[in-house]
Amino acid sequence: MMTIAVASGKGGAGKTSFAAALAASIGPGSIVADCDVDAANGAIALGGSITRREDYFAGPGYRIDASACTGCGACAGACRFEAIKPSADGRSYRIVPELCERCGACVDRCIARAIGTFEKKAGELFVSQTRIGPTLVHAELEPGEDTSGKLVRKVREGSTALAGADTAIVVDAPPGIGCPVIASLSGCDLVVVVVEASVSGIKDAERLIELLDSMKRPAVGVINKAGLNAPMDTRAKAVLERAGLPLAGEIPFDPALRSVEESGKTWKDVKGAAGDSVRKALASVKGAMAGIARKSDHGQGKE
Amino acid sequence: MKYGIPTDDGRTVSAVFGRAKSFAIYDEAVPGFSIVENEGANSEHGAGTGAAAFLADKGVRIVLAPEVGPKAAEALKAGGIETRSASAGLELTALISSLGSS
């Protein structure tokens, strides 16, 4: 089993598109773990239809029992998140679920013991079949909910559970460098850093590379949206070189890349020069995967 | 000297630290090792820093893990706990017997 994460730092750099193309190029036996649980697009990129779903519970939600509530308002006074409001009839109070941070301060203050817990659904986990071929494991967090790191861990566990000894799992990481990204990258054999050739793309990639350094993950770089600004392309290459990341490929900005996705395929099927660079980058990444497989102790050497 | 190693199955080293299902605690003075459940594995926040605190409470001075997230690394350092690299999937018994030579 081998896990390859596709990350970028910056949003919109091309992670999901590249991850979909990589999984498509590996074949229908591969698994994509879409770890962008706040704004998951893997199902769109791969043409997914849900075959399994499961509710995700992050932790207890708090609820006021209106019949036990004396209307004293001590809970609302304790709440630092302005999540407790008077009820419509003014006789009791109610907790607004989207604002509640589950700190429990209200429970401590309630003399009537009117506040209890309930299993609050914080999101959903899915497994989908995809038109492109790979199995997709994904999730969605309810708006306003946190614990994205924990939900990403569940997506990762879900994909490992479906994987066989020879399966490749492509992890589509979320943007940023926070907990959900760390949970997406942990335990991966290889990270593909997609660098958008722009000022913010390069800056955010640098922050990601710093994180990868502290996590000691082997990584390669793919520059995306190249060809719009030569000095930017040069700067992107320099950043990767300075960090010691081999350049797996350089993908030009080309409307053909978007049209191929709109027609329900992945970047690997694009015709012309842009498609050639994508296929070259994919071959390079697969070469890096083979190199890691050869080095591993678990006898996974596959040519 | 007490060592802490993350493990999901109780037999091999886990690829993750903060949300590993349990930790193997090996005390040089005692033969064998014990497995303690990582109560923080399911926590909503701070699983990594919680695990660091958990191990510090148990008197662990060295953590052996493939990787540790940035905040957990800070917490371990603050607790005076050293982190050493250990490959994911390695058999715990093999890893622990290799420690005798340190």
Q: Which key features would you list for this structure?
A:
heterodimer, A: 303 residues, alpha/beta, Rossmann fold, Alpha-Beta Plaits, 2 domains, nine-stranded mixed beta sheet, two-stranded antiparallel sheet, 10 helices, 11 strands, elongated, disordered C terminus, B: 102 residues, 25% helix, 24% strand
Describe this structure in words.
The complex is a heterodimer of chains A (303) and B (102). Chain A contains ten helices and eleven strands. The radius of gyration of chain A is 23 Å and the shape is elongated. Chain A has a nine-stranded mixed sheet with strand order 3-6-7-2-8-1-9-10-11, with helices on both faces. Chain B is an alpha/beta fold. Chain B has a five-stranded mixed sheet with strand order 3-2-1-4-5, covered by helices on one side. In chain B, α1 packs parallel to α2. The radius of gyration of chain B is 12 Å and the shape is globular. The mean pLDDT of chain B is 92. Chains A and B meet through α5, α6 and α7 of A and loops of B.
Main β-sheet, spatial strand arrangement of chain A: 3-6-7-2-8-1-9-10-11
Tally of DSSP helical segments of chain A:
10
Describe the main β-sheet of chain B briefly.
Answer: 5 strands, mixed
Beta-strand content of chain A: 25-35%
Summed over residues and divided by their number, the pLDDT of chain A gives a mean of 94
Q: Which H/E pattern describes the elements of chain B?
A: EEEHEHEH
Rg of chain B: 12 Å
Secondary structure: helix percent of chain A: 25-40%
Low-confidence stretches of chain A: 299-303
Mean residue pLDDT of chain B? 92
Number of helices of chain B: 3
Task: Please report the total strand number of chain A as a whole number.
Answer: 11
Q: Would you list the SSEs of chain A in sequence order as H and E?
A: EHEHEHEEHEEHEHEHEHEHH
Structural class estimated from helices and strands of chain A: alpha/beta
